[in-house]
Design a protein that fits this description.
Length: 129
């Protein structure tokens, strides 16, 4: 799998049409959106996990601390998964742009959406009980 093009200035990839340049730039912006989302999820996960550590100091806060740690680590894992999925999508789209083809795929997006929904449902169930 080739990640960084053909390498060197002599063998550099040169887009054959102006629209292709815009497609590559849009692909990079999409990667940055994936990165923002992943880093945001990781950051919130750390905050949730640390909040549990603070809650453990209060009376009866042990159960809250355990749940907070689980939810925090799950958010960090989902953030890491989002970064990996975003990077895979970026390189896949990059290859397709260079080949002049496009095959839409919703599976990577649905993985992150399903993970988010599962975490939200678990949090709601925990909050209600």
């Amino acid at each position: 799998m080739r990640f960084f093009g053909k390498g060197g200035s002599n063998g550099a990839y040169r887009p054959g049409r102006d629209a292709e340049v815009r497609e590559h730039l849009a692909n990079e912006r999409t990667l940055l959106a994936w990165v923002r989302t992943g880093v945001g999820l990781i950051s919130v996960g750390f905050v949730v996990e640390r909040a549990g550590a603070l809650a453990s100091a209060t009376p009866g806060g042990r159960q809250t601390a355990a749940a907070s740690e689980i939810f925090g680590l799950a958010l960090v894992a989902l953030g890491c998964l989002t970064l990996v999925v975003g990077a895979v999508q970026f390189f896949r789209n990059r290859r397709m742009i260079m080949a002049g083809v496009f095959e839409p795929r919703s599976t990577p997006y649905m993985i992150v959406v399903a993970g988010s929904l599962l975490l939200a449902a678990a949090f709601v169930l925990y909050s209600v009980s």
